[in-house]
Amino acid sequence: MNTPTLAIQDAINWMMTHNVMLKATPGSSKHAAVSLTPATISEARFNALRESAPIFGQLINAVAENHQFLQEAIEPVAQGDAFFRELLAMHKAIHQKGNAKRTPLLMMRTDFMDDQELGPQLIEFNGIAAGMGPFGQRTHELHRYLQKQSPSAFSNWNENPHAKLIENLAITRLAEGIVHAAQSIKAQTEEQDRAKFLMVVQENEDNIFDQFLLEQQLREMGIETYRRTFKQLHSSLTTGENERLILDGVGGIDVVYLRAGYQYCDYAAHDLDSKKCCDTLMNTRIFIEQHKVAVNATVSQQLATSKRVQTLLTSMTAEQLTRFDLTLQQAERVKGLLGDMRLVNEESYDFICTEDVDNWVLKNQGEGGGHCIFGEDIPRKLQQLTPVQYETWALMRRVRPAPRRTPALVVREGVADTVDDLISELGLFTVHLDGKPVTADGGYAGYLVRSKASTTTEGGVHSGLGVLDSLAYEAH
């Protein structure tokens, strides 16, 4: 077995022993797909994005707490999208008569792609289930390991074998943000026990390893961690003294972190709902926010990071963006990254027919992969929409990153392959508690890189088409 082959197997073994895995069946798992050729970025560009990401966090926090703006923004979507109709009803129930006692903890991932002509452009905000930060750090650590352990093979796989890998402390920084929030809530009580963290998860979750890495770090930092589905929480949450959220058998909860709740099926409990689908478990989420607990993501944050709000923010001038607690300088900075998005209306079909459809993407309000329409499917879909459905869709100008100059090596399910046209999406994590940054770097909390072939429209790691990656500085 030659050196490159040994190094590839070494990389696979490293991922398996460091929990860079996805659950495959109830009793087995497989390593996540990964690139062994880090993406490169100029130091100036990375620093500019790292400094801009916390401004987006500040912006989204202000949008989320501007309840009148959110109601007006989401109401048109709610008329044509049943899930958003329920989210809006939840939002109203939480905020009527000052019922919202929770402290908003915004742990957000802001995703960018680097357009060949326009530079970095915002793809989307991820405010609920903004995961994969731990995998981002682990992938950086894998590349650092290979650079030291197998320098010859690593040099063969990279156009700049001596490139400086960009440090990624996403596990540590996200955990620090959660600990800060937990201690802030705990300090409001007279309790002497350890702070407690509750992760709300999906049933049959396959991404347990990424979640485990964060939980493990929290436990090492003195936080108790618990996992429950909405269904499990339905009958196990109560109200304690001073509006404390109590979990049966555990006690007062300080932080609730939602890794579920961004799709209808997360609330489905047909054995519990007698009148209407999802009411029971949605009421559980409302109940959580009516207590003194730090919550990510609040319903407000989920609405504020929607495609609808992103489209509205994109259409604003820098001056108009200052209404959301930004200075003009900050607003101008984010405006340059917001890209081009357009609301869908009765004129959209004629507009797209005069354009090159390959320059646009049609997006609905769904989270995760599978919610985008491309090419000739766009005008066909636009023709099928009724006027009430227009508001649930948006047109976004496609971002065209330059493929890498040299082939990249990727490994999927134990098999290595080269990809000639790999492109990358960079997600930057930020943490804000009640609108204030809580990490040592102004709110910045690490990064996630996912790469894919330029001909691939869906780049999620879960879908099997994207791969985990990391960053290195371009050579001078």
User: Could you say which overall geometry the principal axes of the C-alpha atoms support?
Assistant: globular
Largest sheet: 10 strands, mixed
* Distance from first to last alpha carbon: 36 Å
Number of strands: 24
Structural Rg: 22 Å
Q: Give the helix tally.
A: 17
How many structural domains? Answer: 1
- Compute the average pLDDT: 92
Multimeric state? single chain
User: How much β-strand is present in the residues?
Assistant: 15-25%
Which spans have pLDDT < 50 for at least 5 consecutive residues? Answer: none
Helix content: 25-40%
Provide the structure class.
Answer: alpha+beta
Describe the structure.
It is globular, with a radius of gyration of 22 Å. The protein has 476 residues and is an alpha+beta fold. The chain has one domain (12-23, 30-473). Strands 5, 6, 7, 8, 12, 13, 20, 21, 22 and 23 form a ten-stranded mixed sheet that branches. Strands 14-17-15-16 form a four-stranded antiparallel sheet, with helices on both faces. Strands 3-18-19 form a three-stranded antiparallel sheet, with no helix packed on it. Strand 10 and strand 11 (251-252) form a beta hairpin. It comes from Vibrio maritimus.
Q: What are the salient characteristics of this protein?
A:
alpha+beta, ten-stranded mixed β-sheet, four-stranded antiparallel β-sheet, 17 helices, 37% helix, nucleotide-binding, metal ion binding, glutathione synthase activity, metal-binding, glutathione biosynthesis
